[in-house]
C-alpha cells in the first residue's frame, strides 16, 4: 500500500512524518487558492531535498496555468511526482508527461473532465464543493482506468481501513486527517500508517 502524507509546511512536519516510513510526502506549491498548507517554491525546494536525504519520495502539488509553469516547477524543485489539480488541454498534459522528468499524478473528482492518457497515477479527491469522493465513485475509477489509483479526501486513521478494504486502491493520500492545530501529529500519522498497512494485507 502506497502511503503519501501531503501538505507538509516545515522541517518539523517532515521530520515527524518520515519516522513512519511513508512512501511519499507532498508539498503544496503553485496553487491559486487559499490554503494554510501552501509553501513557497524556495521552502519546498529545501524540504524536498531534505526529504530525499531521508529516503522519502516527494510530490509537488500544483495547479499550473499551462505546461510551461508545470515544467518550471519540475525543473526548480525536482520532485519525484508532479501532482496536478487542474484540467489542462490534452497537448499541455502530454508535454508535461513527456518532458517533466517527474512522474505525473492527475486528480479526478466528481466535477473533473481531465485527460488520463498522459499520467502515471490517478488521485481521487474532493470535488469543487469540498465533498469527499464516495466509495462507489472511487470504486468506479479503480475499475475504469488501468492506472494505479490513489484515494484522498477526508481520510483519517478511523476510516482509512474501510476505504482500503472497499475501494482496493493502489494507495492513499492524507493531509488534514493527520493534523492537530495545523501541524502534522506523530500519533495520528502512526495510527494512519498502521491502519492502512494492516488493511492492505486483506485486499
What does this structure look like?
The protein has 203 residues and is an alpha/beta fold. The chain has a single domain, classed as Aldolase class I (TIM Barrel), CATH 3.20.20.70. The protein has seven helices and ten strands. The chain has an eight-stranded parallel β-barrel with strand order 1-2-3-4-5-6-7-8, surrounded by six helices. Helix 1 runs parallel beside helix 2, helix 3 packs parallel to helix 4 and helix 6 runs parallel beside helix 7. The radius of gyration is 16 Å and the shape is globular. The mean pLDDT is 94.
Low-confidence region ranges: none
Report the CATH superfamily: Aldolase class I
Radius of gyration from the alpha-carbon trace, in angstroms: 16 Å
What level of helicity do the residues show? 25-40%
**Average pLDDT figure:** 94
Reading the helices and strands in chain order gives EHEHEHEHEEHEHEEEH
Taken as a percent bin, the fraction of beta residues is: 15-25%
Outline, from the CA principal axes?
A: globular
- Largest sheet data: 8 strands, parallel, barrel
Please provide a brief summary of the model.
The chain has helices at 11-18, 41-54, 67-77, 90-99, 135-144, 160-167, 186-200; strands at 2-5, 24-30, 57-62, 81-84, 103-108, 121-124, 149-151, 171-174, 179-180, 183-184. The protein has 203 residues and is α/β, with parallel strands linked by helices.
